Amino acid sequence: MTTVAANFPMAVTAKCQKTELANNYIKQFQSAEVDAILKQAGETKLIVPGGWTPVNPADPHIQELGRFAVDEHNKQTGDKLVFVAVVAGLKKPVELATLYWLIIEAKDSDGNQNIYKALVQETDLEMKKLLYFGEVVPPVN
């Protein structure tokens, strides 16, 4: 199991405590969580140890991947989330592809902003596949 702890380039503002939640979540990243998601998705060939590195959330390509994740989630579930931004993330090269573990801010149909986590696979041919999407739940004190 790999734990990633680093200073990620994320702006934490008083206006959005959810961004701080995302920052803490990515700092406490456990690759075992992603490995379990990959096993459940039948993508065991993508499970390789280590190799996760931070992404720059301001990178337009990373924002595009986040928008893709929200759009795919909406198609699969009928939800009507509206993409706001990728606020943090990690990437890991695997055979003929790259995995992206993204922390995404999105608005629900009531206008509430929440933080979500998504696992996106992008092949070397730039084909994308959403492997997981779920809400980041704040820790209970």
Key attributes of the depicted protein:
disordered N terminus; alpha+beta; 141 residues; 5-stranded antiparallel β-sheet; globular; protease inhibitor; Nuclear Transport Factor 2, Chain: A; 3 helices
Topology of this structure?
Blueprint (H helix, E strand, L loop, with lengths): L16 H11 L3 H10 L12 E2 L5 H18 L4 E13 L2 E11 L5 E11 L4 E8 L6
Antiparallel strand pairs: 1-2, 2-3, 3-4, 4-5
Short description:
With 141 residues, this protein is an alpha+beta fold. It has 3 helices and 5 strands, in the order H-H-E-H-E-E-E-E.
Q: Can you describe what's shown?
A:
It is a single chain. With 141 residues, this protein is an alpha+beta fold. The chain has one domain (15-136): Nuclear Transport Factor 2, Chain: A (Roll). Helix content is 28%, strand content 32%. The protein is built from 3 helices and 5 strands; from the N terminus they run ααβαββββ. A 5-stranded antiparallel β-sheet has the order 1-2-3-4-5. Strand 2 and strand 3 (97-107) form a beta hairpin. Pfam families: SQAPI (PF16845). One of its GO terms (molecular function) is cysteine-type endopeptidase inhibitor activity.
